[in-house]
Design brief:
alpha+beta; 5-stranded mixed β-sheet; 34% strand; globular
């Protein structure tokens, strides 16, 4: 098990929490919590070691296009970069809409 921590500058606060995905083979869960800090902190727990550079590139690309201040927890069970990007986009959509119905549809 490996824990990775990344930080990205941010200026726009999220209005709602979000939880998408499940911890299962080839998937991951992502939890977004709004933050008042001018940054986003991402904490990743993964059983796939040695992929720090890949995580940094996937997250860097996402946060270069999405300026949001949040505390994000990711529990990974071998998700590919494409699945990570999709789940990040879903979590952002849920946090912007603030709808539990939307959250349930995305699982």
């Amino acid at each position: 098990m490996e824990t990775l921590i990344f930080e990205f500058p941010a200026s726009q606060t999220l209005s709602h929490r979000a939880h998408v995905g499940v911890v299962g083979s080839g998937d991951l869960e992502i939890l977004f919590d709004p933050s008042i800090d001018a940054k986003t902190t991402v904490s990743i727990r993964t059983g796939s070691t040695g992929f720090q550079e890949t995580w940094e590139k996937v997250l860097g690309r996402f946060f270069s296009q999405n300026d949001v201040a949040a505390t994000i927890k990711i529990n990974d069970f071998g998700a590919t970069p494409g699945v990570v990007s999709m789940r990040l986009a879903q979590a952002l959509e849920v946090s912007q809409n603030g709808s539990q119905d939307t959250e349930a549809k995305l699982r």
